[in-house]
Amino acid sequence: MGAYILRRLLLIIPTLIGIMLVNFTLTQFVPGGPIEQIAAQLQGEGDALRNISGGGGEAGSGADEAMYGGARGLPPEFIAQLEKEFGFDKPPVQRFLLMMGNYLTFDFGISWFHSTSVIDLVKDKLPVSITLGLWSTLLAYLISIPLGIRKAVRDGTRFDTWTSGVIIVAYAIPAFLFAVLLLVLFAGGSYCIDFGYDFLRGLVGLPEKNACIRFPLRGLTSENFADLSLWGKVKDYAWHVALPVLSTTLASFATLTLLTKNSFLDEIGKQYVMTARAKGLAENRVLYGHVFRNAMLIVIAGFPATFLGVFFGASILIETIFSLDGLGRLGFEAAVQRNYPVIFGTLYVFGLLSLVVGILSDLMYVFVDPRIDFESRAG
Protein backbone atom coordinates (compact mmCIF):
# COMPACT_ATOMS: atom_id res chain seq x y z
CA MET A 1 0.00 0.00 0.00
CA GLY A 2 2.91 2.33 0.70
CA ALA A 3 4.23 1.99 -2.87
CA TYR A 4 0.73 2.69 -4.24
CA ILE A 5 0.39 5.86 -2.17
CA LEU A 6 3.87 6.99 -3.26
CA ARG A 7 2.96 6.51 -6.92
CA ARG A 8 -0.25 8.45 -6.46
CA LEU A 9 1.61 11.27 -4.74
CA LEU A 10 4.16 11.44 -7.55
CA LEU A 11 1.37 11.57 -10.13
CA ILE A 12 0.03 14.71 -8.47
CA ILE A 13 2.91 16.77 -9.90
CA PRO A 14 2.36 16.15 -13.65
CA THR A 15 -1.41 16.16 -13.23
CA LEU A 16 -1.38 19.51 -11.48
CA ILE A 17 1.00 20.97 -14.06
CA GLY A 18 -1.32 19.74 -16.82
CA ILE A 19 -4.37 21.34 -15.17
CA MET A 20 -2.60 24.67 -14.80
CA LEU A 21 -1.15 24.55 -18.33
CA VAL A 22 -4.52 23.93 -19.98
CA ASN A 23 -6.21 26.74 -18.07
CA PHE A 24 -3.30 29.13 -18.56
CA THR A 25 -3.34 28.45 -22.31
CA LEU A 26 -7.08 29.05 -22.54
CA THR A 27 -6.81 32.41 -20.81
CA GLN A 28 -4.42 33.63 -23.51
CA PHE A 29 -7.26 33.53 -26.04
CA VAL A 30 -10.03 34.96 -23.85
CA PRO A 31 -10.85 38.55 -24.83
CA GLY A 32 -11.25 41.30 -22.29
CA GLY A 33 -8.18 40.76 -20.11
CA PRO A 34 -7.29 42.90 -17.09
CA ILE A 35 -5.58 45.56 -19.22
CA GLU A 36 -8.66 45.92 -21.41
CA GLN A 37 -10.92 46.07 -18.37
CA ILE A 38 -8.88 48.84 -16.73
CA ALA A 39 -8.79 50.74 -20.01
CA ALA A 40 -12.55 50.40 -20.44
CA GLN A 41 -13.11 51.56 -16.87
CA LEU A 42 -10.92 54.63 -17.31
CA GLN A 43 -12.53 55.45 -20.63
CA GLY A 44 -15.97 55.14 -19.09
CA GLU A 45 -15.00 57.51 -16.31
CA GLY A 46 -13.70 59.96 -18.88
CA ASP A 47 -16.99 59.83 -20.78
CA ALA A 48 -18.96 60.31 -17.58
CA LEU A 49 -16.90 63.35 -16.56
CA ARG A 50 -17.30 64.91 -19.97
CA ASN A 51 -21.07 64.40 -19.93
CA ILE A 52 -21.34 65.91 -16.46
CA SER A 53 -19.33 68.97 -17.47
CA GLY A 54 -21.45 69.45 -20.56
CA GLY A 55 -18.45 69.27 -22.87
CA GLY A 56 -20.18 68.14 -26.00
CA GLY A 57 -19.68 70.52 -28.86
CA GLU A 58 -16.81 72.95 -29.03
CA ALA A 59 -13.31 71.85 -28.11
CA GLY A 60 -12.15 72.92 -24.69
CA SER A 61 -8.88 74.11 -23.28
CA GLY A 62 -5.70 72.08 -22.98
CA ALA A 63 -6.53 71.16 -19.38
CA ASP A 64 -9.93 69.91 -20.48
CA GLU A 65 -8.30 67.91 -23.22
CA ALA A 66 -5.98 66.25 -20.68
CA MET A 67 -8.84 65.61 -18.25
CA TYR A 68 -11.02 63.91 -20.80
CA GLY A 69 -8.29 62.27 -22.79
CA GLY A 70 -9.24 58.89 -21.40
CA ALA A 71 -12.56 59.13 -23.22
CA ARG A 72 -10.78 58.86 -26.57
CA GLY A 73 -8.27 56.16 -25.59
CA LEU A 74 -5.33 55.70 -23.26
CA PRO A 75 -1.76 56.67 -24.24
CA PRO A 76 0.39 53.75 -25.46
CA GLU A 77 2.96 54.58 -22.77
CA PHE A 78 0.34 54.06 -20.06
CA ILE A 79 -0.75 50.74 -21.61
CA ALA A 80 2.87 49.59 -21.72
CA GLN A 81 3.31 50.54 -18.06
CA LEU A 82 0.25 48.49 -17.10
CA GLU A 83 1.50 45.50 -19.09
CA LYS A 84 4.84 45.68 -17.31
CA GLU A 85 3.19 46.00 -13.91
CA PHE A 86 0.99 42.96 -14.54
CA GLY A 87 3.82 40.97 -16.15
CA PHE A 88 2.32 40.86 -19.64
CA ASP A 89 5.53 42.24 -21.13
CA LYS A 90 7.06 38.75 -20.85
CA PRO A 91 6.40 35.82 -23.23
CA PRO A 92 3.61 33.42 -22.14
CA VAL A 93 6.02 30.52 -21.58
CA GLN A 94 8.18 32.60 -19.26
CA ARG A 95 5.13 33.84 -17.36
CA PHE A 96 3.87 30.29 -16.89
CA LEU A 97 7.22 29.02 -15.62
CA LEU A 98 7.55 31.95 -13.20
CA MET A 99 4.00 31.38 -11.96
CA MET A 100 4.52 27.65 -11.34
CA GLY A 101 7.84 28.34 -9.62
CA ASN A 102 6.12 30.71 -7.20
CA TYR A 103 3.22 28.32 -6.68
CA LEU A 104 5.57 25.55 -5.57
CA THR A 105 6.32 27.68 -2.51
CA PHE A 106 2.63 28.67 -2.22
CA ASP A 107 3.39 32.23 -3.23
CA PHE A 108 0.28 33.23 -5.18
CA GLY A 109 1.05 36.90 -5.46
CA ILE A 110 -1.18 39.92 -4.92
CA SER A 111 -4.76 40.26 -6.14
CA TRP A 112 -4.88 42.93 -8.80
CA PHE A 113 -8.24 44.31 -7.73
CA HIS A 114 -8.12 43.82 -3.93
CA SER A 115 -4.62 45.09 -3.05
CA THR A 116 -4.03 42.11 -0.79
CA SER A 117 -2.32 38.75 -1.12
CA VAL A 118 -4.30 35.88 -2.62
CA ILE A 119 -3.56 33.72 0.43
CA ASP A 120 -5.03 36.30 2.80
CA LEU A 121 -8.01 36.74 0.50
CA VAL A 122 -8.73 33.01 0.46
CA LYS A 123 -8.26 32.73 4.23
CA ASP A 124 -10.81 35.49 4.68
CA LYS A 125 -13.39 33.62 2.58
CA LEU A 126 -12.67 30.10 3.90
CA PRO A 127 -14.97 30.12 6.98
CA VAL A 128 -18.06 30.51 4.80
CA SER A 129 -17.10 27.73 2.39
CA ILE A 130 -16.00 25.37 5.16
CA THR A 131 -19.26 26.01 7.02
CA LEU A 132 -21.42 25.23 4.00
CA GLY A 133 -19.31 22.26 2.89
CA LEU A 134 -18.80 20.54 6.24
CA TRP A 135 -22.23 20.94 7.80
CA SER A 136 -24.10 20.25 4.56
CA THR A 137 -22.15 17.03 4.03
CA LEU A 138 -22.62 15.86 7.63
CA LEU A 139 -26.33 16.66 7.56
CA ALA A 140 -26.77 14.86 4.26
CA TYR A 141 -25.07 11.72 5.61
CA LEU A 142 -26.97 11.80 8.91
CA ILE A 143 -30.28 11.86 7.03
CA SER A 144 -29.42 9.76 4.00
CA ILE A 145 -27.90 6.66 5.62
CA PRO A 146 -30.76 5.83 8.05
CA LEU A 147 -33.40 6.75 5.47
CA GLY A 148 -31.70 4.77 2.71
CA ILE A 149 -31.41 1.68 4.94
CA ARG A 150 -35.07 2.00 5.92
CA LYS A 151 -36.12 2.28 2.29
CA ALA A 152 -34.07 -0.79 1.35
CA VAL A 153 -35.58 -2.88 4.17
CA ARG A 154 -39.10 -1.77 3.25
CA ASP A 155 -38.58 -1.80 -0.50
CA GLY A 156 -41.84 -1.63 -2.44
CA THR A 157 -43.98 -0.59 0.54
CA ARG A 158 -45.97 2.63 0.83
CA PHE A 159 -43.17 4.12 2.94
CA ASP A 160 -40.68 3.51 0.14
CA THR A 161 -43.03 4.95 -2.47
CA TRP A 162 -43.87 8.13 -0.58
CA THR A 163 -40.30 8.84 0.48
CA SER A 164 -39.10 8.26 -3.09
CA GLY A 165 -41.61 10.86 -4.25
CA VAL A 166 -40.35 13.34 -1.67
CA ILE A 167 -36.74 12.65 -2.66
CA ILE A 168 -37.46 13.17 -6.36
CA VAL A 169 -39.21 16.46 -5.65
CA ALA A 170 -36.33 17.58 -3.41
CA TYR A 171 -33.80 16.71 -6.09
CA ALA A 172 -35.78 18.58 -8.74
CA ILE A 173 -36.05 21.83 -6.76
CA PRO A 174 -33.12 24.18 -7.52
CA ALA A 175 -31.13 25.06 -4.43
CA PHE A 176 -31.50 28.81 -4.96
CA LEU A 177 -35.30 28.50 -5.29
CA PHE A 178 -35.44 26.52 -2.05
CA ALA A 179 -33.27 29.20 -0.43
CA VAL A 180 -35.73 31.91 -1.47
CA LEU A 181 -38.59 29.84 -0.04
CA LEU A 182 -36.76 29.52 3.28
CA LEU A 183 -36.20 33.26 3.35
CA VAL A 184 -39.89 33.94 2.78
CA LEU A 185 -40.98 31.51 5.49
CA PHE A 186 -38.31 31.97 8.15
CA ALA A 187 -36.45 35.23 7.59
CA GLY A 188 -38.99 38.00 7.77
CA GLY A 189 -41.06 37.31 4.69
CA SER A 190 -44.82 37.39 4.40
CA TYR A 191 -45.35 34.48 6.78
CA CYS A 192 -45.03 34.12 10.55
CA ILE A 193 -44.21 30.70 11.96
CA ASP A 194 -44.31 30.32 15.74
CA PHE A 195 -42.72 27.63 17.90
CA GLY A 196 -45.49 25.82 19.73
CA TYR A 197 -43.39 24.54 22.62
CA ASP A 198 -41.78 26.54 25.40
CA PHE A 199 -38.65 24.37 25.25
CA LEU A 200 -38.03 25.13 21.58
CA ARG A 201 -38.76 28.81 22.02
CA GLY A 202 -36.16 29.02 24.78
CA LEU A 203 -33.67 26.96 22.80
CA VAL A 204 -33.61 29.39 19.91
CA GLY A 205 -33.88 32.49 22.07
CA LEU A 206 -37.58 33.31 21.66
CA PRO A 207 -38.88 33.26 25.24
CA GLU A 208 -42.10 35.18 24.57
CA LYS A 209 -45.12 33.37 23.21
CA ASN A 210 -46.47 34.05 19.73
CA ALA A 211 -42.99 35.16 18.63
CA CYS A 212 -42.31 34.61 14.95
CA ILE A 213 -39.19 32.90 13.73
CA ARG A 214 -36.76 35.40 12.24
CA PHE A 215 -33.54 33.88 10.96
CA PRO A 216 -30.64 36.27 10.21
CA LEU A 217 -30.10 37.42 6.65
CA ARG A 218 -26.38 38.21 6.70
CA GLY A 219 -23.08 36.67 7.80
CA LEU A 220 -22.15 33.71 9.98
CA THR A 221 -22.40 35.45 13.34
CA SER A 222 -23.99 38.48 14.97
CA GLU A 223 -22.15 41.71 15.66
CA ASN A 224 -22.09 41.00 19.43
CA PHE A 225 -20.76 37.46 18.92
CA ALA A 226 -17.60 38.11 20.96
CA ASP A 227 -19.64 39.21 23.98
CA LEU A 228 -21.81 36.07 24.09
CA SER A 229 -21.30 33.08 26.35
CA LEU A 230 -20.10 29.76 24.92
CA TRP A 231 -23.63 28.41 24.64
CA GLY A 232 -24.75 31.75 23.25
CA LYS A 233 -22.07 31.59 20.57
CA VAL A 234 -23.13 28.07 19.59
CA LYS A 235 -26.78 29.14 19.28
CA ASP A 236 -25.89 32.29 17.37
CA TYR A 237 -23.69 30.39 14.92
CA ALA A 238 -26.30 27.68 14.38
CA TRP A 239 -29.01 30.33 13.99
CA HIS A 240 -27.05 32.00 11.19
CA VAL A 241 -26.01 28.89 9.24
CA ALA A 242 -29.27 26.94 9.45
CA LEU A 243 -30.92 28.24 6.28
CA PRO A 244 -27.83 28.25 3.99
CA VAL A 245 -26.87 24.74 5.09
CA LEU A 246 -30.39 23.42 4.48
CA SER A 247 -30.36 24.97 1.02
CA THR A 248 -27.07 23.35 -0.01
CA THR A 249 -27.99 19.97 1.52
CA LEU A 250 -31.08 19.39 -0.60
CA ALA A 251 -29.57 17.84 -3.74
CA SER A 252 -26.79 15.83 -2.05
CA PHE A 253 -29.27 14.41 0.48
CA ALA A 254 -31.45 13.00 -2.31
CA THR A 255 -28.54 11.47 -4.20
CA LEU A 256 -26.99 9.85 -1.10
CA THR A 257 -30.32 8.39 0.04
CA LEU A 258 -30.90 6.57 -3.26
CA LEU A 259 -27.26 5.47 -3.36
CA THR A 260 -27.56 3.99 0.14
CA LYS A 261 -30.80 2.21 -0.70
CA ASN A 262 -29.45 0.69 -3.91
CA SER A 263 -26.23 -0.42 -2.20
CA PHE A 264 -28.22 -2.20 0.51
CA LEU A 265 -30.56 -3.82 -2.00
CA ASP A 266 -27.58 -5.17 -3.96
CA GLU A 267 -26.07 -6.73 -0.83
CA ILE A 268 -29.32 -8.07 0.64
CA GLY A 269 -29.85 -10.31 -2.39
CA LYS A 270 -26.43 -11.97 -2.16
CA GLN A 271 -25.74 -15.51 -1.03
CA TYR A 272 -23.99 -14.70 2.25
CA VAL A 273 -27.08 -12.84 3.48
CA MET A 274 -29.33 -15.82 2.80
CA THR A 275 -26.80 -18.06 4.57
CA ALA A 276 -26.76 -15.79 7.62
CA ARG A 277 -30.54 -15.83 7.77
CA ALA A 278 -30.61 -19.60 7.37
CA LYS A 279 -28.38 -19.88 10.43
CA GLY A 280 -31.10 -18.17 12.45
CA LEU A 281 -29.39 -14.81 12.98
CA ALA A 282 -31.63 -11.91 13.94
CA GLU A 283 -32.54 -9.50 11.16
CA ASN A 284 -30.72 -6.59 12.81
CA ARG A 285 -27.63 -8.76 13.21
CA VAL A 286 -27.77 -9.65 9.54
CA LEU A 287 -28.27 -6.06 8.42
CA TYR A 288 -25.80 -4.27 10.67
CA GLY A 289 -23.35 -7.08 11.33
CA HIS A 290 -22.91 -8.34 7.78
CA VAL A 291 -24.63 -6.17 5.17
CA PHE A 292 -23.76 -2.75 6.54
CA ARG A 293 -19.98 -2.89 6.01
CA ASN A 294 -20.26 -4.03 2.40
CA ALA A 295 -23.19 -1.80 1.50
CA MET A 296 -21.72 1.31 3.09
CA LEU A 297 -18.35 0.90 1.41
CA ILE A 298 -19.07 3.21 -1.52
CA VAL A 299 -21.10 5.65 0.59
CA ILE A 300 -18.69 6.15 3.49
CA ALA A 301 -15.55 6.00 1.37
CA GLY A 302 -16.94 8.77 -0.79
CA PHE A 303 -17.24 11.20 2.14
CA PRO A 304 -14.04 13.18 1.35
CA ALA A 305 -15.02 13.60 -2.28
CA THR A 306 -18.58 14.57 -1.33
CA PHE A 307 -17.35 17.20 1.10
CA LEU A 308 -14.94 18.59 -1.47
CA GLY A 309 -17.71 18.73 -4.06
CA VAL A 310 -19.99 20.71 -1.74
CA PHE A 311 -17.05 22.84 -0.57
CA PHE A 312 -16.05 23.84 -4.09
CA GLY A 313 -19.52 23.79 -5.58
CA ALA A 314 -21.28 26.02 -3.06
CA SER A 315 -23.56 27.98 -5.30
CA ILE A 316 -22.77 31.62 -5.92
CA LEU A 317 -26.53 32.15 -5.78
CA ILE A 318 -26.75 30.68 -2.25
CA GLU A 319 -23.95 32.93 -1.03
CA THR A 320 -25.58 35.94 -2.66
CA ILE A 321 -29.07 35.19 -1.33
CA PHE A 322 -27.83 34.86 2.25
CA SER A 323 -25.22 37.65 1.96
CA LEU A 324 -22.30 35.29 2.58
CA ASP A 325 -18.88 36.26 1.28
CA GLY A 326 -17.32 32.92 0.42
CA LEU A 327 -15.08 31.36 -2.20
CA GLY A 328 -17.97 31.05 -4.64
CA ARG A 329 -18.43 34.80 -4.92
CA LEU A 330 -14.67 35.32 -4.89
CA GLY A 331 -14.23 32.99 -7.86
CA PHE A 332 -17.09 34.58 -9.77
CA GLU A 333 -15.77 38.10 -9.26
CA ALA A 334 -12.24 37.01 -10.20
CA ALA A 335 -13.50 35.46 -13.45
CA VAL A 336 -15.50 38.58 -14.35
CA GLN A 337 -12.59 40.92 -13.57
CA ARG A 338 -9.99 38.59 -15.15
CA ASN A 339 -8.15 38.68 -11.83
CA TYR A 340 -5.59 36.06 -12.87
CA PRO A 341 -3.67 35.77 -9.55
CA VAL A 342 -6.92 34.84 -7.77
CA ILE A 343 -8.11 32.56 -10.58
CA PHE A 344 -4.87 30.60 -10.91
CA GLY A 345 -4.07 30.65 -7.19
CA THR A 346 -7.43 29.17 -6.18
CA LEU A 347 -7.30 26.75 -9.13
CA TYR A 348 -3.91 25.50 -7.97
CA VAL A 349 -5.07 25.01 -4.39
CA PHE A 350 -8.36 23.38 -5.39
CA GLY A 351 -6.64 21.11 -7.90
CA LEU A 352 -4.08 20.04 -5.31
CA LEU A 353 -6.78 19.37 -2.73
CA SER A 354 -8.84 17.38 -5.24
CA LEU A 355 -5.92 15.13 -6.07
CA VAL A 356 -5.06 14.60 -2.40
CA VAL A 357 -8.71 13.86 -1.59
CA GLY A 358 -8.68 11.22 -4.33
CA ILE A 359 -5.93 9.44 -2.41
CA LEU A 360 -7.85 9.86 0.86
CA SER A 361 -10.90 8.27 -0.76
CA ASP A 362 -8.83 5.20 -1.65
CA LEU A 363 -7.55 5.03 1.92
CA MET A 364 -11.15 5.23 3.15
CA TYR A 365 -12.00 2.20 1.03
CA VAL A 366 -9.20 0.24 2.71
CA PHE A 367 -10.25 1.49 6.15
CA VAL A 368 -13.87 0.45 5.66
CA ASP A 369 -12.97 -2.89 4.06
CA PRO A 370 -9.39 -4.11 4.74
CA ARG A 371 -9.83 -6.82 2.09
CA ILE A 372 -9.35 -4.21 -0.63
CA ASP A 373 -5.76 -4.08 -1.83
CA PHE A 374 -4.91 -1.41 -4.38
CA GLU A 375 -1.30 -2.53 -4.43
CA SER A 376 -2.15 -5.93 -5.95
CA ARG A 377 -4.15 -4.23 -8.73
CA ALA A 378 -1.55 -1.57 -9.53
CA GLY A 379 0.35 -3.73 -11.96
UniProtKB/TrEMBL annotation:
<comment type="similarity">
    <text>Belongs to the binding-protein-dependent transport system permease family.</text>
</comment>
<keyword id="KW-0472">Membrane</keyword>
<feature type="domain" description="ABC transmembrane type-1">
    <location>
        <begin position="126"/>
        <end position="365"/>
    </location>
</feature>
<dbReference type="GO" id="GO:0055085">
    <property type="term" value="P:transmembrane transport"/>
</dbReference>
<keyword id="KW-1133">Transmembrane helix</keyword>
<keyword id="KW-0812">Transmembrane</keyword>
<feature type="transmembrane region" description="Helical">
    <location>
        <begin position="96"/>
        <end position="114"/>
    </location>
</feature>
<protein>
    <submittedName>
        <fullName>Microcin C ABC transporter permease YejB</fullName>
    </submittedName>
</protein>
<feature type="transmembrane region" description="Helical">
    <location>
        <begin position="295"/>
        <end position="322"/>
    </location>
</feature>
<dbReference type="InterPro" id="IPR000515">
    <property type="entry name" value="MetI-like"/>
</dbReference>
<keyword id="KW-0813">Transport</keyword>
<feature type="transmembrane region" description="Helical">
    <location>
        <begin position="126"/>
        <end position="149"/>
    </location>
</feature>
<feature type="transmembrane region" description="Helical">
    <location>
        <begin position="161"/>
        <end position="187"/>
    </location>
</feature>
<dbReference type="Pfam" id="PF00528">
    <property type="entry name" value="BPD_transp_1"/>
</dbReference>
<feature type="transmembrane region" description="Helical">
    <location>
        <begin position="237"/>
        <end position="260"/>
    </location>
</feature>
<feature type="transmembrane region" description="Helical">
    <location>
        <begin position="6"/>
        <end position="26"/>
    </location>
</feature>
<keyword id="KW-1003">Cell membrane</keyword>
<dbReference type="GO" id="GO:0042884">
    <property type="term" value="P:microcin transport"/>
</dbReference>
<dbReference type="InterPro" id="IPR035906">
    <property type="entry name" value="MetI-like_sf"/>
</dbReference>
<feature type="transmembrane region" description="Helical">
    <location>
        <begin position="342"/>
        <end position="368"/>
    </location>
</feature>
<dbReference type="GO" id="GO:0005886">
    <property type="term" value="C:plasma membrane"/>
</dbReference>
